[in-house]
């Protein structure tokens, strides 16, 4: 028993089991106190908040650029009714407004557009109201429209059918038609009607009509007297398309909800619900009760759910109104909803895998430790007996270690000591056994020759002489040349020849007797890293610099820019990409993008122009090294002239002109950051699109 306790098998088994148990305890402790699962939950909240924020940004973009962007049409309609007084509206020919109203409907991509005048007759107020149940599919004629309100004669002349809920005039109701009364009653606050636009809660125009939301603005005559309203409608069915539940989860998603803060009771009232599954879990007829659980990500738990399952909500404010306008206190929010089991599915999976891995590691580790220790000790015992039987030329005495098997091996090493081979030969044999591109060399201070293994000569591309030896002077000169071409991102890696794709890694160690070096061919690793860097920095479709790579290129240039040159930062936005994608598919949308990229590249050569892609339809351009601003303007004007002749013919024969808008900001102030210049260029781009697509505007700093 005493000898067995000294056995390497016994001690190794005890050590491995102890290490496995200690590792299990440390892993359990890290899970309990290290915050791994807590961080995973934080990531889940962050991911939910990010998705909802992105959807809110998209919805606000649609509101600003489409649904509420009706000022131009409102002005045109105001001019047509400019000489009317409130008393004369009953006799006004509403058909004169039809063209502008239909154009407003088409441009805004809303489901309806209307004009309602103030005069009250026997059957109500004069109105003209058109509806398009599918705004995405636009007809060149008006056969896809329906008349909701207005004269049947106007409908007949325009060949527009009457809707099943058609009314000749508008019959106002104070209890449900706030879309009319609120903007009309506030018309005296400003002559700028765009500041008085009002978003209504969902309601039905008529008893059997579908639910809609509206955006209305006052209509003023030439004396700035209110004579009605003009606006657009969105059916809730159509609004659902802009709030896809699959954003949050591919299957069985609770989707989105829009809520409005009720000023009287100070509670959040649902105004839009995203589907039957959501309505089964949450009573949308009552105020939404939220309990904050992750304030930094605006994530709360919904308290008033009708099931035992927890539901979490990420809430993000919709900026519908500008400050200091009549309705700025009417606050709307977009809410994304997820069940706890779905939100933390990844967290729960990690937790289960970790605990399972922990249990398996303990069991497998103990069994493997026992098996390995005995299998490891057995060959040592056999080897020691073989070496012990070998003849010995010189006897030496080694101190016992107290471990039975190692002592046997020590006695065998005593007998085999004089049979050890020369260190250099042993090094070469070991390397040859691995059959990998590795070479080695040994350099001694008192020798003019350097020993090298056979493969090292081909690795360093140096001629080997004298049967494995090279002159020390020649070797050191060649090694200095090789090590001059080093890789900055990988210490110890060098390029053999600037004209070749061949790299090696060199490691050396110094002993009292010599310097030993190892050289390994790492060409494949370096090429793979270079390809990864290339894939990281380039946009897959256009092969342009992506957002981060462009900023790095810009900041590197900006730090070394020439003071006597002119430069500018340009933002481009493709005008019709969404329509192309929606109509013809993303394959043709990609073609549209590539055609536009070719135009942008025509601004100049690589010496003067750097182009990057920021998002799907946004591109950023750095124009540099110009002597004067007129050269940049001429290049930009040339691009827009070329754009007028650049078209794309689709498979149905449609010929669509490539169109883009641009904002330009000159880089003539050294105290502004890249983000500052980018914001100025983006502001100019927004101004260009507001003035009419297909043009450019200069930022005023």
Automatic annotation (TrEMBL):
Matches recorded under CDD domains: GGDEF (cd01949), PDC1_HK_sensor (cd18773)
SUPFAM superfamilies for the chain: Nucleotide cyclase
Domain (GGDEF) ranges: 565-701
Keyword annotations of the record: Membrane, Transmembrane, Transmembrane helix
Transmembrane regions: 12-37, 353-374
Pfam families to which the protein is assigned, alphabetical: GGDEF (PF00990)
SMART domains linked to this entry: GGDEF
UniProt signal peptide: none
Name of the protein: Diguanylate cyclase (GGDEF)-like protein
